[in-house]
Design goal:
- This protein is an alpha/beta fold.
- The chain has a single domain, classed as 3-Layer(aba) Sandwich (Rossmann fold), CATH 3.40.50.300.
- Helix content is 36%, strand content 9%.
- The longest helix has 18 residues.
- It is globular, with a radius of gyration of 19 Å.
């Protein structure tokens, strides 16, 4: 139980909430765990909720498992929460904080909460907790869509369309956020130490030893499936490439050349961490 004598306003003001978001299967769990393991940060642990996601612990806004779920939540307008939400009533921030505080080590300054749908509700969370930091991780739509199919009944085309729709919402929301960065999963894999150092700098977190980076080659078998299952003339794959190539290219991805990661275009490029140039 939380003592009634706890000054929640002072306690909240003494911490920096860090919200991690991104589509399911994009690397949110890895990234949140890495951040939570530093000497100055704490993630939600021992909650009993799936993946220790904070969305399932509070009653101010409903978790997406009640509203479409992985691969579909971005199609539901009510899942996109902003500073105009009627859920922003007096005492809402305190209610959420009370739900989360028992599962953080509040001796640490940075408190981490990870729920994939944070990607479409950062403006709302910023209104709840001014000064929060937001870390969005994105991953190639081929990998995300194929990895998500086992969790939902959806076509490959529908899952790619969901990826495009959610990242369209993200692009519209970014200018409304004060402290946000966008990280590509592929950059974590290709140059984890540099990406990690840039992330800590963005957060205002003291330098910390980089943990072991994510496994390499995890996208490759999805790309191989795409190549083998998408011969010239395959209707679904041809339609995906024709309709969504330009949307994927804004984040440096391609359906026609999935193994090549290109430059990121605006508006995403304005919110990206600097990544060291390859050497050699």
């Amino acid at each position: 139980m939380v003592s009634d004598e706890v000054d929640l306003q002072a306690e909240m003001a003494g911490h920096v909430p860090v919200f991690v978001g991104g589509l399911h299967r994009s690397g949110t769990t890895f990234l949140a765990a890495a951040l939570s393991a530093t000497d100055h940060a704490s993630g939600l642990t021992g909650t009993g909720a799936r993946k220790d996601e904070g969305q399932s612990l509070q009653d101010v806004y409903t978790g997406v498992r009640f509203r479409a779920g992985p691969g579909r939540f971005g199609f539901r307008a009510e899942n996109h929460l902003t500073e105009a939400s009627p859920l922003l009533v007096d005492g809402a921030a305190e209610r959420v904080w009370r739900a989360w505080r028992p599962y953080w080590d509040l001796e640490k300054r940075f408190v981490v909460e990870k729920s994939p749908p944070n990607i479409v509700r950062m403006r709302f969370l910023q209104a709840l907790f001014p000064g929060s930091r937001f870390v969005v991780i994105v991953r190639h739509p081929i990998a995300v869509s194929l990895a998500t199919r086992k969790w939902c009944r959806a076509t490959h085309f529908g899952l790619v369309r969901h990826w495009v729709n959610v990242h369209r919402i993200l692009a519209e929301d970014l200018p409304h956020l004060q402290h946000v960065t966008v990280i590509r999963y592929e950059d974590l894999v290709d140059d984890f130490p540099s990406t990690w150092a840039g992330l800590l700098t963005f957060l205002g977190h003291p330098p910390a030893t980089a943990p072991r980076g994510p496994k390499t080659g995890m996208n490759d078998h999805y790309y191989q499936w795409w190549d083998s299952a998408a011969p010239v003339g395959t209707t679904e794959h041809a339609l995906i490439a024709a309709r969504y190539e330009s949307a994927a290219a804004r984040l440096g991805y391609s359906f026609r050349a999935p193994y090549v990661t290109g430059p990121v275009a605006a508006p995403f490029s304005w919110y990206r961490l600097p990544v060291a140039e390859p050497t050699g």
